[in-house]
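hey team, just a heads up i'm posting the complex here instead of the shared drive bc the drive is being weird again. everything in one block, sequence lines first with there labels, then the predicted structure for the whole assembly after. its two chains so it's a bit long, scroll down
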Amino acid sequence: QKEVEQDPGPLSVPEGAIVSLNCTYSNSAFQYFMWYRQYSRKGPELLMYTYSSGNKEDGRFTAQVDKSSKYISLFIRDSQPSDSATYLCAFVYSGSARQLTFGSGTQLTVLP
Amino acid sequence: GAGVSQSPRYKVAKRGQDVALRCDPISGHVSLFWYQQALGQGPEFLTYFQNEAQLDKSGLPSDRFFAERPEGSVSTLKIQRTQQEDSAVYLCASSLGAGADTQYFGPGTRLTVL
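-- predicted structure starts here --
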C-alpha cells in the first residue's frame, strides 16, 4: 500500500464551480499537511499548510484535515481558468526528517 | 528577491554519460532539498542538506547519484553513467531554517537520457 493515495484525474470543471481534491494517507507519523500547486513546466508552489485537524481557509481555498480518518481535502470556490494546474498533497513526518512526501497529483482544468 | 534557480533547464544525455545539475537556493536559506519527479507523478525526495552538511541521502536511488553543497549555498546533483530510467525532472527546493519551514521550489531540470 502506498503511503499517500491521490486520484490523478484529470478533472475538468466549468468556471465558477466548486472543486474538491482529496488525499488519503496511511502513515500516522505525518505531522504537517500541505497542498502545492504546480503549473506545467514549473516547480510546485505552496498553497496551504496546516498541522491540525479541522479547516483552514485562505481566500477561495479551504484545506481540511481529518487525522482520525487519515484524509485531507482542498476545496476551491469560484474556480477560475487560472486555477488550471496539477495539485499535489504533501506531508512531513514528525521528528527530525523534513523532506516532503507527495501524492501523485491531480490535474485540474477549469473551462472558461 | 530572486527565487530558487536551476540550470540547465533542459539536458539531453546519451546513456552512459555523466551529468551535473546545479541549484542556486534563495540567499540565506539553510536547508536545501533535491527531488526527482517522473512524468505524471509527484516529486520524490532524494537528499537533504543543512548548510554544507548532507544530513539525509536516503532517497538517492543508486550510488551513481551524488550531491554536494560545499559552501552551504549552491548545490550540485551529479549522476554518473546515466540510464534511461534516470529521465525525469530534478527539482531543488530551499527553506529558511532547519525546521519544517516552507520549501520554495525551483523550476526544475528536465533530464532526458537517450
